Amino acid sequence: MQLQDGLTTLSGMYGISIDAGYKPLHGQAGAHESTAPRAVPAGAEFFRVVSSEGKVFSFGLGIYSPFGLKTEWPDDSSFRQAGVYGSLEYIAFNPVFAVQVTRRCRWASGFPPITWTCSCARG
């Protein structure tokens, strides 16, 4: 991304289609096929950079969700005691500081504090 003077913003979204199903092995007493409802979790990203004309310093912040997962199974699934619900949410924050070394080169550094939440439920 070419830095311009002033405020530069980039944002976007993406989705992942998950098709989960369970088919028991032959001979498992009482086991039957189960299908989880189809889910399309959405991931978002947002990046913003501030750069001033004549200054060698730039500052920025990025917030993005590189992945996540949520699965719900029916209450009558064969493995109900093991779990019927699971989710994972992952969000990364990335503050950045950049210095212009030459006219065509900038050196940047940042650290990504990460937060995540996981939850599960058994039947």
Characterise this structure:
With 123 residues, the chain is an all-beta fold. It has one domain (6-20, 33-121). 0% of the residues lie in helices and 56% in strands. The chain is built from no helices and 9 strands. The model has no long low-confidence stretch (mean pLDDT 79).
Helix content: under 10%
Number of helices: 0
Strand runs, count? 9
What is the end-to-end distance? 48 Å
Rg, Å, rounded: 23 Å
Summing up helix and strand content along with how strands pair, one would put the structural category as mainly beta
Helix-strand topology string: EEEEEEEEE
Query: Can you tell me the overall shape?
Result: rod-shaped
> How many domains is the backbone divided into?
1
Strand content: over 45%
User: pLDDT average, as an integer?
Assistant: 79
The stretches of 5 or more residues where confidence is low (pLDDT under 50) are none
The main sheet comes to: 7 strands, antiparallel
How would you summarize the topology of this molecule?
Blueprint: E1 6-15, E2 21-22, E3 34-35, E4 42-51, E5 57-64, E6 68-72, E7 85-102, E8 105-110, E9 114-121
Antiparallel strand pairs: 1-4, 2-3, 4-5, 5-7, 6-7, 7-8, 7-9
Summarize the structure.
By secondary structure, the protein is mainly beta. The chain has one domain (6-20, 33-121). The protein has strands spanning 6-15, 21-22, 34-35, 42-51, 57-64, 68-72, 85-102, 105-110, 114-121.
